[in-house]
Write a structure and sequence with these properties.
Low-confidence stretches: 218-223, 230-243
Structural class: alpha/beta
CATH topology of the largest domain: D-Maltodextrin-Binding Protein, domain 2
Strand content: 15-25%
Largest sheet: 5 strands, mixed
Order of helices and strands: HHHHEHEHEEEHEHEE
Number of strands: 8
CATH architecture of the largest domain: 3-Layer(aba) Sandwich
CATH class of the largest domain: Alpha Beta
């Protein structure tokens, strides 16, 4: 049963029968037969079929939800039993939004010092991709914002709070200020992340709330300032720069 549920999860991720079969290490007829056996056991169609994969039926979506829970719990059970036998060992996959990458080593370094047989792979992804990877069980943990997008059925642990600093040269406009308002920030060229990144969307929202116009992306970083997230005091890495002008309402 677990293998057949893995087939459903792979099909949801790959959106293609052949690619899903390859990801599961089986032939396409084997994957199709496994899904058909699931359909027979439930007495309903789970997959909308045509010349290619067309999606899941409503019943298939419910089975997919349960498959993710059951497979995730089964993997966790095996890992926990293995840890009891041999101590913690294995590989942990983490995806982090770009602005949280500096925080990853604060989690992985002490963990690896305590459990040297554990290794890590770290991916940089946007917030939507992080949630998708979690949902499809392709990663074990994700670092992303908690407040700006629905997170689904995941366990969340707040790590730190962000505040924003304006990084600019001392002789540039606002360069000699201890703090600046978002309305003032909106009047200078900014070097920002691309609009698909949630950090950029947060900054755009703050500028709009302040009545500032969200301008086009800066092309020349030598002529622009950077509005950058920083961790809350005492909660983040040594790279935090409290001397930079603080962005506030």
């Amino acid at each position: 049963m677990i293998e057949k549920l893995e087939f459903i999860i792979a099909l949801a991720r790959e959106r293609h029968f052949g690619h899903a079969a390859e990801a599961c290490g089986v032939s396409q007829p084997t994957l199709s037969a496994g899904i058909k056996q699931l359909e027979d056991s439930f007495g309903v169609l789970l997959v909308q079929r045509g010349s290619r994969f067309q999606g899941f039926t409503p019943e298939g979506e419910r089975v997919l939800d349960w498959a993710r829970r059951i497979v995730g719990d089964t993997r966790a059970m095996h890992q926990e039993i293995d840890a009891l036998k041999r101590g913690l060992a294995g590989h942990i996959r983490i995806a982090a939004i770009p602005t949280a990458l500096a925080m990853v080593e604060l989690l992985t370094t002490p963990y690896r010092a305590k459990h040297p047989d554990v290794s890590f792979t770290i991916w940089s992804r946007n917030s939507i991709e992080v949630l998708g990877l979690l949902e499809n069980l392709e990663i074990d943990a994700g670092l992303t914002y908690l407040d700006n997008e629905p997170l689904g059925r995941v366990q969340t642990v707040p790590l730190y709070s962000e505040e924003y600093r304006l990084l600019t040269s001392s002789d540039a406009p606002l360069g000699n200020r201890d703090s600046v308002t978002w309305a003032e920030v909106g009047n200078v060229p900014l070097c920002l992340l691309t609009p698909d990144m949630q950090n950029r969307q947060i900054i755009d929202g703050l500028l709009r709330e302040a009545g500032a116009e969200v301008g086009p992306d800066a092309r020349d970083p030598t002529r622009s300032s950077c509005c950058s997230p920083m961790c809350a005091p005492g909660a983040g890495p040594a790279s935090c720069r409290p001397s930079l002008p603080r962005c506030s309402a």
